[in-house]
Amino acid sequence: MKVHWRHISSANNSFAVLAAACEAHGYNLEVAEEPRPDVTCYSLNSISERSYRDEIAEADCITIVGGPHASACYREVAQYADYVVVGEGEYTLPSLLAAIEEGRDSPPGVATARGYTPARHTVLLDGYPPFSEVKGFIEITRGCPFGCGYCQTPRLFGRCMRHRSIDEICRYAARFRDIRFVTPNAFAYGSDGIHLRLDRVERLLRSLNGRVYFGTFPGEVRPECISQQSVGLILDHCANTRLHFGAQSGSDRVLRLLHRGHTVEDVVRAVELCRENGLVPVVDFILGLPFESDDDQRATLDLVKMVARTGKAHIHYFMPLPGTPLRNSRPRSLLPETEKILGKLALGGKITGSWMDHELRFFRRTSHL
């Protein structure tokens, strides 16, 4: 049975992960630019789904769809795809391929038009390689203990953090000259995500050979985790001169409503620590949140301007994502003064992002089918 992977640039890391998992079970995922027999697999987010929905529905082959959108909206996707992998795919996808080849019913964790039985397993990262022939970023941690209202991560991967062992990380990192990681919070490696274990982070960094980029995309950090000790680890062991973290809002009221788990003061302190230690802070913000007042938006804009004086601000326009608490919320408009100031900062090279086209940011993210 031939199995193909539909090439979608936003899902490149998912391809690396799942190709390695399938290879261990004797299935070679061949990259394709269109649906091809016998089986074609897709990994979709909430933007790419719109582009591939009709193609999948009309495909003259067996179609398997996964990714964050498919996991959150599996009933809808199962109306036009043959199979939908819900959640993590490393175990489920090879099991589904075997069931198709042998003519058996699909395993738990797969939805069809006939129904859905939830998976009964959790993926342990050491049980699956981060990549095989096709290299991808090394995922060192999965899951997040925080429940930010806009974020799909804890809904897809759970709120219990799972870590890849240092030995396994080093094994795959040896194939890179420049080493980068996938993680919801790089400084949380080896911990529960709330009570940091920076001794374990240090042990990981000391074990790596090569140019290590830690706390940068696609493995950012949280602002309250930035301390003199954690910054010292970057300065002593890493090649990056930037530290990337999320502020999201300049209003403590909005941060509480988002369940972010940090304050504006945490963000200001993190920016100052970066500046004092010669690191450039790169800080994410979300504008247009549904419960954002005019004053809240102005407070966020003030924080953006403060960040832009010594670092870079990365601006997103709020988009409700399926499967999240804010999935049915509508974004509010930006104030004219906000648009004017953001435009001026952008022209000066102080900010980047997609506040005028919120869909662009989805082409930076990764998922695992």
How are strands sequenced across the largest beta sheet? Answer: 2-1-3-4-5-6-7
Q: Regions with pLDDT < 50 over 5+ consecutive residues?
A: 360-368
Radius of gyration from CA coordinates: 21 Å
Beta-strand percent range: 15-25%
Query: Main beta sheet: strand number and arrangement?
Result: 7 strands, mixed
- The coarse silhouette is globular
The helix count comes to 13
Total beta strand runs: 16
How would you classify the helix and strand content by structural class?
A: alpha/beta
CATH level-four homologous superfamily name of the largest domain: tm_1862 like domain
* SSE topology string: EHEEHEHHEHEEEEHEHEHEHEHHEHEHE
CATH architecture of the largest domain: Alpha-Beta Horseshoe
Number of domains: 2
Estimated helix fraction: 25-40%
Task: Give the terminus-to-terminus CA distance.
Answer: 20 Å
Query: Looking at CATH, which topology of the largest domain would you report?
Result: pyruvate-formate lyase- activating enzyme
Tell me, what is the CATH class of the largest domain? Answer: Alpha Beta
Average pLDDT metric: 94
